[in-house]
Amino acid sequence: MARRQWSIAGQLFALQAVVVTLLVLAGASGAVWLARIDSRQAAKDEVLAVAQTVARSPEVRAALTSPDPAAALQPYAESIRVATGTRFVVVMAPDRTRYSHPNPTLIGQPFIGDIGPALAGEPFTVTNVGTLGESVRAVVPVYGDDQRIIGLVSVGITTEAINKKLLAQIPVLLAAAVPALALAATGSWLLSRRLRRQTHGLGPAQMTRMYEYYDAVLHSVREGLLVLTRDRRVALVNDEGRRLLGLDDDAAVTDEPVAGIDLPPAVAELLTSGRDAHDEPVLAGDRVLVANQRATRFEGKVLGTVLTLRDQTELRNLASELDSVRALTEALQAQTHESANRLHTVLTLVELGRADEAVRLATRDLELAQQLTDRVVGAVTEPALAALLLGKSARAGERGVDLVIEPDCRLDDSPLPTGDLLTVVGNLVDNALEAVAGSPPPRRLRVFVGTVDDEIVIRVGDNGPGLDPDRVADAFRRGWSTKSAGRGLGLALVGQVVSRHGGRTEVGRPDEGGTLFTVHLPVPREGR
């Protein structure tokens, strides 16, 4: 079995528990140490005060000068000892002879301990070992009427008694230490619990590997990624996302609100809305992107929003060209069937002996087709554009729409890229075909492509229901189209070409109704 690794939260909790325990123990030990020092100092002060009181007592001075000092001093000293709670009160002669002692058998024997400073007239305290064990004692001189030292008084408290008083204070220390330890442990547990939620219980090694792997993936993946927080701030943008959105590599966008970043309008609207999106086409400058957006959740709580972007500009262009080729193919197939039907009709008329009618029928159809071909090929010398118009004309015929090439249409050697011309003309014609699809007959389209005053003018009009003026700007900005699904990119792609070449677009309403799109594309300087 693999060795179980501690999470960051678990390690932090263990560390905090150890640190808090050590701090509490150190604090308690310090308090005990200070209490011990205070207890010893209090004992020293107490025995010194008692000794000085006894030394100044007139009874003691009188007894020391009497013939039998012990007889008077022993009961007096014992009464003082009992009253003050000290361990011993010893009155002695300057030569150490005891006149009083808690153990009467030791009266008359020499006092054990240092008395030198007191004989020199200096009261002092000291810790010494005597007949009653280790004690804190004070020795004070007793002065006679002539200010000579006539005796000494020693008062002591055993260290055992001091320790008992100190031990009596331990419950108070514990009463303060235990709640402090419990409070610190609870705080550490709550903090570790919150950290566990934020790190999802991962250990440091796991988080390090995750960061390294995710960072490598985010920088290498060929799909734009943008992550937002719950308050609509940018948490992450990978390299591909910056490239697709046109963001400067050095621009600091992390932790910035979406509204404060210069994003393409369609992307900004999608991010601001926070709605879920699945393979939704959006425009970003000259690019056609496919966006997927959804909210991220953990344990039922919304953490933020993730937006992914895929560049499909080239794929859209190829798909548009493929649609044009497919439409032309379908038109040719339809024309093949139509021609076959007419040929059978002509042959039947010949077999019936009605050759004149057969000739008139064949000549009329040939003239109509040739007139359209001659008009398109004669007006537009660009083969691809001419083929596009012929294909659109055939497609319009299938749908019962009369596509008219205006007589003054003329375009020779366009200096603009052929792909841009095909994008503008093809999408405008397709949009017009969609617009008139539900209109009653007659349905008509008019197309003009030509050069006017150093501008290439493309004009496509229809007699459909017309475009609402309030939706014109929205159509070019967000990819709106006349399709019922409302997700077409035709007009938006036209707007991209116009913007790229510094042109302009006009949307009007002709007298016969419908919509008239006019695109002006300036001819490049070197092409004039």
UniProtKB/TrEMBL annotation:
<dbReference type="InterPro" id="IPR005467">
    <property type="entry name" value="His_kinase_dom"/>
</dbReference>
<keyword id="KW-0808">Transferase</keyword>
<dbReference type="GO" id="GO:0005886">
    <property type="term" value="C:plasma membrane"/>
</dbReference>
<keyword id="KW-0902">Two-component regulatory system</keyword>
<keyword id="KW-0418">Kinase</keyword>
<keyword id="KW-0597">Phosphoprotein</keyword>
<dbReference type="InterPro" id="IPR036890">
    <property type="entry name" value="HATPase_C_sf"/>
</dbReference>
<keyword id="KW-0472">Membrane</keyword>
<feature type="transmembrane region" description="Helical">
    <location>
        <begin position="170"/>
        <end position="191"/>
    </location>
</feature>
<dbReference type="InterPro" id="IPR003594">
    <property type="entry name" value="HATPase_dom"/>
</dbReference>
<dbReference type="GO" id="GO:0000155">
    <property type="term" value="F:phosphorelay sensor kinase activity"/>
</dbReference>
<dbReference type="Pfam" id="PF02518">
    <property type="entry name" value="HATPase_c"/>
</dbReference>
<keyword id="KW-1003">Cell membrane</keyword>
<dbReference type="InterPro" id="IPR004358">
    <property type="entry name" value="Sig_transdc_His_kin-like_C"/>
</dbReference>
<keyword id="KW-1133">Transmembrane helix</keyword>
<keyword id="KW-0812">Transmembrane</keyword>
<dbReference type="InterPro" id="IPR029151">
    <property type="entry name" value="Sensor-like_sf"/>
</dbReference>
<protein>
    <recommendedName>
        <fullName>histidine kinase</fullName>
        <ecNumber>2.7.13.3</ecNumber>
    </recommendedName>
</protein>
<dbReference type="Pfam" id="PF17203">
    <property type="entry name" value="sCache_3_2"/>
</dbReference>
<dbReference type="InterPro" id="IPR033463">
    <property type="entry name" value="sCache_3"/>
</dbReference>
<feature type="domain" description="Histidine kinase">
    <location>
        <begin position="313"/>
        <end position="525"/>
    </location>
</feature>
